[in-house]
Amino acid sequence: MHKRLRWTFLIILGLFFAFALADSLGVFDNRPYYEVPHGNHTHYVPKDCDPPVTPGDAPTRPPAPDERINCRGQIVPK
């Protein structure tokens, strides 16, 4: 009985850590940009740009619901 309880606890603990790791890697994040903290402000860098936008060229405010960040680092209407 103790071995079964121990294995159950270890499996639950492993699933918790797997979920925490996936969340920290952004697996569940569906926003089209990354938030990059930089000193006392945050840059909002768009995903899926080739070549990627550097954080220094990205805007420091998030786009509104009717806006997006283009691959040149500008906030534009959708």
Tell me about this structure.
The protein is of the alpha+beta class and 78 residues long. It contains one helix and four strands; from the N terminus they run αββββ. The chain has one helix at 2-24; strands spanning 33-38, 41-46, 67-69, 75-77. The strands form two sheets. A two-stranded antiparallel ribbon has the order 1-2. The chain has a two-stranded antiparallel sheet with strand order 3-4. A hairpin with a 2-residue loop joins strand 1 (33-38) and strand 2 (41-46). The N and C termini lie far apart (59 Å). The relative contact order is 0.13.
Fold topology:
Elements: H1 2-24, E1 33-38, E2 41-46, E3 67-69, E4 75-77
Antiparallel strand pairs: 1-2, 3-4
The assigned structural class equals alpha+beta
Order of helices and strands: HEEEE
Largest sheet, described in full? 2 strands, antiparallel
Using the alpha-carbon principal axes, give the shape: elongated
Number of alpha- plus pi-helical segments: 1
* Widest sheet: strand ordering: 1-2
Radius of gyration: 19 Å
Helical content (DSSP H or I, runs of 4+): 25-40%
- Percentage of residues in strands: 15-25%
Distance between the termini: 59 Å
Give the integer mean of the pLDDT values.
92
The low-pLDDT segments are none
Number of strands: 4
Task: Name the descriptors.
single chain, 78 residues, alpha+beta, two-stranded antiparallel sheet, 4 strands, elongated
